[in-house]
Amino acid sequence: MTDCQVCQLIQAKSLTIFEDEHVVAFVHPEPSVPGQIAVAPKPHSPIFETIPDVIVKQMFTVANKLSIGVFEAVGAQGTNLLIQNGLPAGQAKPHSLISIIPRRDGDSLNLEWQPGKVSEDDSKKAESALKDAAQNIGKVEKEKPKPLEEKKPEKMDIQDSDYRMKQLRRIP
Amino acid sequence: MSPEELKEFQKKQCIFCRMVAGEIPSKKVYEDDKVFAILDINPASAGHVLLLPKDHYPILQQMPDDLVAHLGLISKGFSQAFLQVLKVEGSTIFAASGASAGQRAQHVMLHLIPRKENDGIGINPPSRPMQPQDLQKVCQALKPFADQIMGVKKDDQKREAPQAPAPSEQGEAPAAQPTQPATAKPTGSVGPITPSSLPKRVAPSSIIIPKGMEVSQRSRSLEGHVFPGSEDVVVVKASPGPRKRKKPIKKAQGQEPSEDRSGKPRQEKEAGSSLDDITSFLTRR
Q1: With an 8 Å Cβ cutoff, are B81 and A155 in contact?
Q2: E strand segments, B23-105
């Protein structure tokens, strides 16, 4: 944990611009463009897939909201949200993060890609494989948030001054 | 042309909206009530997926938070599927807002690209390390904007937070009618929740429109309200106003709760706005 540069940055708080219980947003220490922001989960998560669903949700909302500020703060004309997940994708830190990259016309940053040479066969294989796998995507997503929602009323009921609880206690 | 008409017009022109509607054939791989995933026609690699919201939004920043969160979740699911099914070693998740960022289509989309070693796809922005003092300057420039924007978020979180003190809330909600600008904390962390920092309880049917977003003429004619801690406009729809329940509760309850409740109708008469009706209705429940 202590070896992770991102975890150290999160603890140091020197570059933090926003923080809540799940995520931290900080100024990227090695930006491609000045003003680049990184949104990271607080628990150490080496790859994007290891981040719990609740935190993934929060990361995306925070990243999207902060990207609104970038337009005014550094005079950006556009933004990129980028997750580089895994070494082949160019992930530089052993802690998964979303980069918010402020963009301007002629900023000499090239994030475009050339369409790859993908054969019909590969494409069809990928399509059918993903279709099968995608049925689970929805399931995982629906099952996980539910326990959290169920916890909420429990906590509410503990309130002693809640008149509904008083009535419940009277019954036995 | 009103914003709603304009949106409708854009929707008709947008090829992705027509793909969602099934008017144009597409290689659909996933669909639920909010989002739609298809294979890119010019893929960077086999299995390159475009993840789109079903509703038409030109840029990501205009989308509601829960939809953005949902896009994130689904992209995580696809990223997992890439690793498991396509046997790749990584993935790139990429979104562009604005032409300078490389956005081409007028419909929000996330590119989910399976990645392999030395696939030559790129999308790897070079890192240009900056001096610590320069980084601090950037941090200070960004912070006020971040605080301003996330102030809204903080309120949202607190409204969802279950540990909100229920008793004080009952008395507080209708009383603190004028806005108390939430003091932006330096780190933006969510500290202990105090009644004064709680947002007004608004009806579930109300719409919160962020500052600067287009509001249609029709919505404007409805009740407008400033949301505490932000400059958001809360448009409240018709109030339910169920006054029947007031008397039975008074009879049933003897002590503390009745104090709260007896205080409320008085304020209700004073203010009499529909927001008051709704807040008192909610707290009474």
Answers
A1: no
A2: 28-31, 35-39, 49-53, 90-97
Which of A103, A136, A152 represents a domain boundary (last residue)?
A103
Q: Are residues A59 and A139 both part of a single domain?
A: no
Amino acid identity of residue A130, one-letter, is L
Q: Is A117 on the interface with B (CB under 8 A)?
A: no
Distance from CA of A144 to the nearest CA of B (A): 11
The answer to the question of residue B146 being in a domain is no
Domain containing B76 equals 3-115
Answer whether B88 sits within 8 Å of A88, measured CB to CB.
Answer: yes
Same domain, A52 and A16: yes
Query: What is chain B's pLDDT, residue by residue, as a tens digit (285 residues)?
Result: 777 887 778 778 888 998 998 898 988 999 888 999 999 988 888 889 999 999 998 889 889 999 999 999 999 999 989 998 888 999 999 999 988 888 888 899 999 999 988 888 888 888 888 888 888 988 888 888 888 888 744 444 444 444 434 444 444 444 333 444 443 333 333 344 444 444 444 344 444 545 555 544 334 433 444 334 444 444 444 444 444 454 555 544 444 444 444 444 444 444 445 556 656 656 655
Interface of A with B in 84-113 (CB under 8 A): 84-92, 99, 101, 103-105, 107, 109-113
Query: Does residue B44 belong to any structural domain of this protein?
Result: yes
- Pair B174, B86 in one domain: no
Contacts of A69 in chain B (CB under 8 A): 142, 145-146, 148-149
Query: Has the ipTM of the complex gone over 0.85?
Result: no
Domain that holds residue A79: 5-103
Angle subtended by helix axes A145-158 and A120-143, to nearest 10: 10
Give the domain-ending residue among A78, A103, A128.
Answer: A103
Which tokens go with B178? 């004028």
Residue found under tokens 């963009």: A103
Q: Is residue B190 part of a domain?
A: no
Alpha-carbon distance of B29 to A124, in angstroms, equals 11
Q: Which two tokens stand for residue A150?
A: 């169920």
Q: Which two tokens stand for residue B230?
A: 């932000």
